[in-house]
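Hi there,

I know you've been waiting on this one. I reran it after we fixed the sequence typo, so this is the corrected version. Both the input and the resulting structure follow.
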Amino acid sequence: MTDTAATQASPAHLYLASASPRRRELLTQIGLAHEVLLVPAPPGEDEPQHPGESAADYVQRTARDKALRGRDWMRDRDLPRLPLLAADTTVILAGLVLGKPVDRDDAARILRTLSGAAHEVRTAVAVWTGDQLLEAVSITEVRMRALTDDEIGRYCDSGEPFGKAGAYGIQGLAGAFISHIAGSYTGVMGLPVFETANLLRAAGIQVP
């Protein structure tokens, strides 16, 4: 297995320390050639929160940790020293983190919790460049309409909830469940384009 996976034919501007296809699509959308670093992640769907750690601190720490693991992976393999981008997305309801579901029952439980409620989606972005770490956070309020048990069951059967924070993907079938959004749509997808572009410019990358 190779350490990197090329996503563009043109020379890469940066490494992406994430296997998320949505983050790859959003970087491509803004014209940034990149390579994915296949950095092993800790076991489990989500990294655990530390005792006493707030949801806001948790998402920033996990993005930072991903960037630092990617930095070490790059250095250990003597890869070209490109800027490295990492991100983490967390769905928060009443201060509680609603992570990626571990199975169908867990996905249904999370969706019932979000049904008819407003929640917060935070995506933290971290860029390692040279010897510094640049960070930003996107905060978006999202309201999901009330869902029936049948709707939740059909959505779980689609397979879409799995691998996604909060058990839904706004860019997919669940877009029909969202009645209101205030903030960054791309942040809810997993990579806030505005904040990311600003960080990459600060890292010396020209963003179209």
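Quick highlight: The two ends are 33 Å apart (CA to CA).

Best,
R. S.
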